[in-house]
Each structure stands twice: as structure tokens, then as C-alpha cells.
Amino acid sequence: RDEEVQGIFARKGLPLRSFLTCSMTRHAMARAASATALFLLFAPLAAAFVAHFPSASRIHLQSGSGIRSKVSVSSPGRGRVPPMRMSTAERPVSSGPAGEGGDLISATDEWVKLARKAETIKKETHIKDLLEDEDRSRAMQLEMDNAVVDFSRQRITTDALQDLLKLAEKADVQGKIKKMLKGDKINTSEDRSVLHTALRAPRTESTVVDGVDVVAQVWEVLDQIKAFSDMVRSGEHVGATGKKIKNFISVGIGGSYLGPAFMHEVLRFERDAMEKSEGYNLRFLSNVDPTDSIIATQGLDPEETMVIVVSKTFTTAETMLNARTVRAWLWEAMGEDPEVVMRHMIACSSNLEAVSAFGIDKANTFGFWDWVGGRYSVCSAVGVVPLALQYGFETVESFLKGCRNVDEHFATAPLEKNIPVMMGLMGVWNNNFLGYHSRVINPYSMNLAKFASHIQQVDMESNGKRVSIDGVEVDFELGEVNFGEPGTNGQHSFFQLLHQGQVVPCDFIGFCENPNPVCLGSETISNHDELMANFFAQPDALSFGRTLDEVLAMGEDASIAPHKVFSGNRPSNVFLMDRLDAFTAGQLLALYEHRTAVQGFVWGINSFDQFGVELGKVLGVNCRNKITECRTGECSIEDAFNPSTSALLDRYLDKTYGCSF
User: Fold this and answer.
1) How far apart are CA 170 and CA 186, in angstroms?
2) 618: exposed, middle or buried (C-beta count within 10 Å: 0-12, 13-18, 19+)?
3) Whether the Cβ atoms of residue 506 and residue 442 lie closer than 8 Å to each other
């Protein structure tokens, strides 16, 4: 009854339009059912009815599975009524293959079965009880070289995990992994292969795309980088005034910055890398905010500085403005001689003409390809050039080998033993079946200070989508909000929310060895032991919690006790690795890259385009053009934008002068 349904919608805080959609769809289907019955029983009367009422609402039932994207209701003079989002446990099922012909994975038996099972688990299952099962705990600890990953603190039963693996089979995760690794053009919207794994493939391998062996191309560039970095570090390549190059500024944004910066932080205080980088200094310039250029150049001698401009097209607005800013800094110190740019600036780009027009020697340009997405490009020249200049090529090669180690595991391990696959499946389980739409990365190592920021881009730019790979709007949540901080810093920042606020699944990353151990004579344990004590405690605190009875048994006052209750039952993954160095950093990066791909494979989306970043850029150009117009003459902004933006821009222009003075 309409009044009852409307009451339910109101109590749940759902918008009235959802009720109206539900009501209209239900009434339309009822009318269609009645018409069908009339047709079957009284064909002549039914025909006359249709002829007499040609404008009656119509229902179109398309062939295929999955009611959500297969039913539309239309009425004269109206657009299509948007489909109502059902709960997954109530959604009609499809037995057809997922991801073909526009079908959504949520329309499959496997998805709906998991949704129903999740409802039971949410009501009846606590992680602390699951951890009592020793066989389950052992089965959910997966090992690979130098590492163990423990999934036992996930809020999932053994039989639900088996159903989750069946969902992966239904989505053809293994088949999609193979397609990616062999160079099929799985980035369908841009008609591109996705081959960041080829960037770290051994020289002996071959991957052919459009008749070209891309692995051979990769090694041609790697050999070029090694030769050039050796020349700079040995002093064979010097600056315009004859001084040895000791400082490097990498100018890039997005993946051209976050990936290399993450690896730089890893290597800065790793013992072998520290020795190799002694006397050198690597900085990054990413933000177009002029303060960032001051930070990047402050205290450096321009005569001893080399600038690496990272832009595939050599047209990225922010990067090119920063490149011109640093070029002006070099010119100010050494004059506008073309030799200054030739000796002090190099490029990572595929646009040789634009590079040459800027003044950079084409011979000092290191290419990469359109099958390398920016957020996956740290293993290309984007990351290898600045890191090889700072730490030597051998250090970077160890990093690439670590990535390759996980690539091989990803390609060959069965689903249930495949660590990145299990990481991705647990993400799908938490996001789509338990309703946890955020996750946090907690590395217990300051060397991983920028890791969460990099993975934030890898994951959110990849899976923050709204439609399937076939362009069908999905009826389930895609992507998660990723964030994180190193170790105990995070504990004193956002762990209050993790323990007593909303549930946010966590990844805890720890290491048996610390690259810089400290043991004080008066202490019985090392600083690293203190750090790792927290590492082991936090996942258990999130899992087990503390009940009201336990708080009262500790002698707490009854009025305060409720504030000290922890519900527990908060899922986490625990990564314990032997040590953090170039190799294991590569392993860690590849695990998270592949986790993101797996989630996209299950959801049936394209994780390798990023059209979501474009609209803001287009509007930014409009704003820039209007600012330029106003800086150089009379202008009117009243009708150029919406009233809010016009008022804000008018205030900005009224209080600033730009460069027009």
C-alpha cells in the first residue's frame, strides 16, 4: 500500500522521489500485468483496448538478465524513469556470464548469494569468535618471499570466503589478469593496453603489442637511463660552468610526483641507498603554488642542479609553468645561454618536438608510452630517472625486481593463495557487502610516509567510477576513500574514530628489521620493539574490543564506563615483512597496484582511464582565460559564471594584481 511504503521511505530518510519512482514502477508493472492477462483471455478485447488507449503508459522488457538495467518505464511527454536502487539481498538474479552485453556483476547468483550471507554475518558474527578457529586463521595467512599477509581479522566466514572466490570466478578475474599481462587492450575507452608490468619485466621476456616488442623498448630506455645517470654521478656530465651536478629537482604532478616521492622516502634512510646517495640531493616540485618552487630550490646552487621535467605530452599546464619557473631560476644565475638548459635540464616525455622547442637536448629525453598510466608510471622513466640519479641505477633495478617478484606471483598463484587477489576480494567484500566505504593504510615505518598518498591516487583515480566497462550505470558502490599515516602518528590522529566511530577497514604494515635501530643502555627493548608492540596490539584492539562488563570489572565508575567500551568487530589485514628496502618496497607497491586491478575486474569497470579529472580542468581553463582578460584590460564577469563563482572571482580580482603591474 502506498501509504505504508511511503512511511517506510520517510523513516529511512529516503527522498520522496525514490518512493515516487518505486510507486510509478510498481503501478506501471501492475497495469502491464493486467493488460497481459486481458490479452491472453480476451485477445479481441485486449486489441481494442490497446487501439483505444494508445497513450497509456508502456513497459519495455528487454531480453537478458538483471532487472535493474533491463526494465524501463516510459510515459508520453516524460523521460525515462530512473531505476530504483534495490538492496543487493533483494535483487533478482542472473545466471548469465557477468560483464557481457552490459550485464552487471550485481545481477549474478553469486553476488546475491553473498549479499544474503552478509546480512546474516552482520547480525550474528564477531571477528573475535572467528579468530578462535585455528584452522581458519592458518588458512588465511598467505606467504610469499620476505612476507606474510594475514587476512584472518576480516569479518568473513570460511563458507562466505568460498562464495567470494566463486564471485571472482564468475567475474573471470583470472582471465582478465591474463589479458592485462599479455597486452590485450583492456583500457577499452582509450583503446590501450595496460602494461606497467612490462616496465619491470626481465630483459629475456617478450610482450608484443601492435607488432612491437614493448619489453625490448623498455630495456632500450633503461639502458639509456643507466648510461646517463652513470655519466652524471661520475662527473663526466657537468653543468654549464663546469661544476659537478649534485642536486636534482623532479618537476611533475600526480603520478609523476607521488610514485617517485614515495620511493625516495623509502630509500632516503635505507642503509645501502643512504651510502650511494651521499653528497646528492633530490627534491620534487609538483604544486603550482609559488611557495613550492621556493621550497624546491631553496639553498641549492643552480650551477650544481639538474632539473627533470616529467610530462608525457609536455603540455601539462602546472608542470610546464613550474618548468619555466625553474628555468628562469637557472637563467638568473647563469644567463640565458642555450647551454644552460642543455646542461641543466632533461625530460621524461614522448613529445620530442616540444622538448626541443623548450631548449632541452633530445638526447637527454627519456621516453615512456601511452600504455603506462600516470599513477602506474613510477617504474618507467618517470621514477627511474630521478631515483637513478640520486641512488644509482643498481638500487632502482632492485626495486624493479621486487615489483617483478609480485607480478610473477600475481600471474601464477591460484585465486585462494594469490595475495593481491585476496586483498582485492576483501576490499569488495567490505565495500559492497558489509558497507564499509573507506579504508586506511597504517605503515609502521616512517620510510613509508608517502606510501598512503601514492596508493590513494592509484586506487581512487582507478576505481572512482560510476559506470561499467560497457557504459552501464552501476547499482552498487565503486571505490573507497583511502587515507593513512605512519605508525604511532596515526594512532594519535584518527585512531579514535577507527576504534569507536564508524568502521574503517585497516591495513597494518610492519617489518621485522628496522634500517636504523636504536638501543639505549637503560632500555631493555629497542625503539623498534616499542613501535612493533603497537603494531601487534592495534589489530587485536580493533578485532576484540572491550565490553561494558570488562570495563566495570576493571573498577571503572558506572557513569564513565560506557565511554570506555569498544565494540570491536572491525576488520584489518596485517602485513609482516622481513625488512624495508628497495626490493620489498617494489613488492609492496605491486601488491597494491594489483589489488586495485582485481577490484576493478570484479566490478566490471575500466580501472585504467580517468575522465573524472577532466571537467575541473576544462572549467579551470575558462577561469584562467577570464582572469587573463581582466588582468590585461576591461572585463565583465557578471554573466561569465554562476552568481556564486562570479562573486568570488570578482572579490579575488579586486584584491590582487597578478603580473600586470
Assistant:
1) 18
2) exposed
3) yes
The Cα angle at residue 255 between residues 363 and 471, in degrees rounded to 5? 115
Q: What is the pTM of this model?
A: 0.84
Angstrom distance (rounded) from CA 149 to CA 143:
6
Residue 169: pLDDT above 90?
A: yes
Average pLDDT over the chain, rounded to an integer: 87
**Which pLDDT band holds residue 77 (cuts at 50, 70, 90)?**
very low
> How many residues would you count in the chain?
661
Start-end of H helices in 436-486? 451-463
Q: Which residue has the cell 646517495?
A: 277
420-435 exposure pattern, b = at least 16 Cβ within 10 A, e = fewer: bbbbbbbbbbbbbbbe
- Which sign, positive or negative, has the C-alpha torsion 50, 54, 56, 60? positive
Quote the pLDDT of residue 7: 52
pLDDT > 70: percent of the chain: 84
Output the nine-digit C-alpha cell for 197: 608490468
- Give yes or no: 617 in active site: yes
Residue-by-residue DSSP string for 155-168: S--HHHHHHHHHHH
Mean pLDDT, residues 550-560 taken together? 96
- State which amino acid sits at residue 52: H
Task: Catalytic residue, from 492, 513, 523, 530: name it.
Answer: 492
Q: How far apart are CA 378 and CA 382, in angstroms?
A: 6
Give tens-digit pLDDT for 392-431: 999 999 999 999 999 999 999 999 999 999 999 999 999 9
Our CA angle for 8, 10, 14, nearest 5°, is 100
441 sits in the region (left: phi over 0; alpha: psi -120 to 50; else beta) called beta
Q: Which three cell numbers stand for residue 423?
A: 586483498
* Grid cell for residue 289: 603554488
Q: Residues 481, 9, 94, 25: is their CA dihedral positive or negative?
A: negative
Question: How far apart are the C-alpha atoms of 288 and 428, rounded to whole Å?
Answer: 36
Confidence of residue 654 (pLDDT cuts 50, 70, 90): confident
Out of 402-411, 613-622, 628-637, pick the least confident: 628-637
Is 52 an annotated catalytic residue? no
Q: Note the pLDDT tens digit of each residue in 273-322.
A: 999 999 999 999 999 999 999 999 999 999 999 999 999 999 999 999 99
Using the Cα atoms of residue 480, residue 483, residue 486 and residue 490 in order, give the sign of their dihedral: negative
- Which of 110, 265, 270, 461 is the catalytic position? 461
For residue 438, what are the β-bridge partners? 481
Active site residue 264: no
- In angstroms, the CA 344 to CA 362 distance is 13
In degrees, rounded to 5, the angle at the alpha carbon of residue 604 between the alpha carbons of residues 415 and 90 is: 95
Q: Taking Cα atoms as reference points, which of 111, 104, 98 lies closest to residue 173? A: 98
Phi then psi dihedrals of residue 208, to 5 deg: -105, 125
Cα 97 to Cα 4: distance, rounded to the nearest angstrom: 37
How many other CB atoms are there within 10 angstroms of residue 85's CB atom? 14
Instruction: Provide the phi-psi class of 211: left if phi over 0, else alpha when psi is between -120 and 50, else beta.
Output: left
